[in-house]
């Protein structure tokens, strides 16, 4: 499996979970976990989907083990951070260190992604370009 397809699939699962959280908050009229909902949608849906687009545009990177590690690291960090932020906003201050560790996982995932973005262009062969022919 490619990093892009894992990113896209996880992004869809995360947005479904985020939407369910939003619906649950609306039904109960309790918006205490709004920050967790926002974290899940931004980190889980938006960021993962953007990672997937980036990886899909770079086939050599898309199939690399390091890209897959980045996606998994980011996803684990996102799940743990979302749960910890929800717990904190529900009054469980013991979740603070868990949120801190999860934040570091997410940061590590972003640093790894930054490495992919800033490494020399020769290492990022985009693959075959689409061949377009003029219409007659």
UniProtKB/TrEMBL annotation:
Keyword Membrane found: yes
Record's signal peptide: none
This protein's name: Cbb3-type cytochrome c oxidase subunit I
Family annotation (SUPFAM superfamilies): Cytochrome c oxidase subunit I-like
Alphabetically ordered keywords of this record: Membrane, Transmembrane, Transmembrane helix
Ligase found in the keyword field: no
Organism: Microvirga terrestris
Transmembrane segments: 38-55, 67-92, 98-118
